[in-house]
Amino acid sequence: MSAGINTYKTDLREIFFTLFEQFGFGQVAGQAPFDAWGPDEAKAVLTETYRFAREVLGPLNSVGDREGCRVENGAVFTPTGFKDAWKKLYEQGFKTVGVSPEHGGQGSPMMLQVTVEELLSGANSAFNMYPGLAFGAAEVVAECGTPAQQKQFVERMLNGTWGGTMCLTEPHAGSDVGAAKSTARRNGDGTYNIRGTKIFISGGDHDMAENIIHLVLARIDGASPGTKGLSLFIVPKLRINADGSSGQANDVSVGSIEHKMGINGSATCVLNFGENDNCVGELVGTVEHVGMSQMFKMMNGARIAVGIQGIGLASAAYYNALDYAKDRKQGSHFTKWKDPTAPRAAIIEHPDVRRMLLDIKAHVEGIRSLIIKLAMHLDKARQLAGKDDDAATYHKGQVELLTPLVKAYSSEQAFRLCAQAIQIYGGAGYIQDYPVEQYTRDSKIFSIYEGTTHIQAMDLVGRKMGQAGGMHFQQFMGDVGSFIEAHREHAVYGEAVKLLAAAQEALMASAMVVFGWSQDGSKFPLIPLSANRFLNMMSEVAVGWLLLDAALIAEKAKASVGADHPDHAFYEGKKYSALWYARNVLPNVEQAAKMLTTEDTSPMDISDAAFASV
């Protein structure tokens, strides 16, 4: 793969189906607060975003991977072309589609924003992390900051003038944020002196924005240990002058940048705050010791964003592998495998290649549906707030419940699916002439940062399922159950719906098993031992349900188009995505439920010494 050549591709028809036909974008758009939006406007934005992704970001993906970032005289420089792409990104408004007009944005529904982000991330995940983190940090200041802070920081961070980060992780603590040692000392003027070291800070420094606004978790002198004693601070790289411009350095230095397996175009920094005891920050808002709750407002958005990264790369890997399979000729057709004179067939004719392609296709479509469904719940919760509080509460609850699924399942599957795309290419996929090897390396980080898969799983079983007395989980299961009852006798999909029903029953039984463990202290270790499995089970039920829902919609739509119409084959594809997933993935839920009941504690029973004799 030559540097500077775009390899990104997707299928806008597929995205339009999910957005407009399956989840009814037109029923959300056109109503307050999305009055200015409709399907035509959304299609125009997505078409233009796809053009930008292919013409500007796509060609820089391999450039960023090969060049990486570098540190010179304490400053980070991004790969060739990134700075110009940053400027164009904001000039053309792609990062402000979903931003509130109050802060200079276009105010679209979240359903559209997540699809825009998929295109940008799919084309160049490493690049899109920089503006993504600035967006998340700005949202925290917009929601939790004082009016003066909102005025000073938010719009500049959203329009690309300033970048932004979140700084949680420390060398000794890792994901144990409560063990943070960074400190904040009160100054007489209401500011704080910040001191400490943060690691793995994505976009921690770069040359694309005038300034970078760090959101830093630190413990004010005398505050209690653990997460409850942490506060969140706004710490600019450059101090802000009275007129709002960027001024002198604020004693924030880059210790180093990490040399990584993937996303090499994203600067992952070690940042040192206050080495010269001259780093000044201000509290986000006016209340001390609420830093974790404030940071989680950004963290939840970041977790959804990681799910979007996952679908972006898995989708890109799929369409590249599909094109290769149609073009590459190797071996004879399977019906003529004994005939040495038979012509070479395109590898898409080989059964195992077709199996792998359909596996990727089904997962990509189902995970995209899951992400857009979550976004739909966000939009409806916002629309219904103050009008129908019960309905708004339902939608908010589903957002809470689905967030760990979106983050964990999409990120885990992205790595697996990208690796499977390599398998479709064979040896060609393992070399840098084709993009799937980079997609695979880039995607591995998704299941690690912003909370590992296990952190998401424990969040699901330890917190989200019990919220509102278990109501959110019960409503989710009720939604799946209503779908099953409505369609279990369907002429085409009835048997697949029954497979979904069996998976749902197994999931509910497993939920009761996990609940029982939570009531028995002696069995508590079984919860962290089984949490990842349970999250995967629930994700498979959710995706299987949404694929069948899409297939039923497509079945009706197919009847209205002729056999020679392009949409006829498209709708047929929805059918086989759903049937393949129902027949080949949903039965895994029942098997996983059986394994849960064995209450295997062997990982806890084995001694440390028994792991190895070395």
UniProtKB/TrEMBL annotation:
Residues 166-273 form the Acyl-CoA oxidase/dehydrogenase middle domain. This is 3-methylmercaptopropionyl-CoA dehydrogenase. InterPro entries: Acyl-CoA_dh-like_C_dom, Acyl-CoA_DH_CS, Acyl-CoA_Oxase/DH_mid-dom, Acyl-CoA_Oxase/DH_mid-dom_sf, AcylCo_DH-like_C, AcylCo_DH/oxidase_C, AcylCoA_DH/ox_N, AcylCoA_DH/ox_N_sf. Belongs to the acyl-CoA dehydrogenase family. The keyword Oxidoreductase applies. SUPFAM superfamilies: Acyl-CoA dehydrogenase C-terminal domain-like (SSF47203), Acyl-CoA dehydrogenase NM domain-like (SSF56645). Keywords: FAD, Flavoprotein, Oxidoreductase. Residues 476-606 form the Acetyl-CoA dehydrogenase-like C-terminal domain. One of its GO terms (molecular function) is flavin adenine dinucleotide binding. It catalyses: 3-(methylsulfanyl)propanoyl-CoA + oxidized [electron-transfer flavoprotein] + H(+) = 3-(methylsulfanyl)acryloyl-CoA + reduced [electron-transfer flavoprotein]. Involved in the assimilation of dimethylsulphoniopropionate (DMSP), an important compound in the fixation of carbon in marine phytoplankton, by mediating the conversion of 3-(methylthio)propanoyl-CoA (MMPA-CoA) to 3-(methylthio)acryloyl-CoA (MTA-CoA). The keyword Phosphoprotein does not apply. PROSITE patterns: ACYL_COA_DH_1. It is an enzyme of class 1 (oxidoreductase). Residues 291-460 form the Acyl-CoA dehydrogenase/oxidase C-terminal domain. GO terms for cellular component: plasma membrane. Residues 40-160 form the Acyl-CoA dehydrogenase/oxidase N-terminal domain.
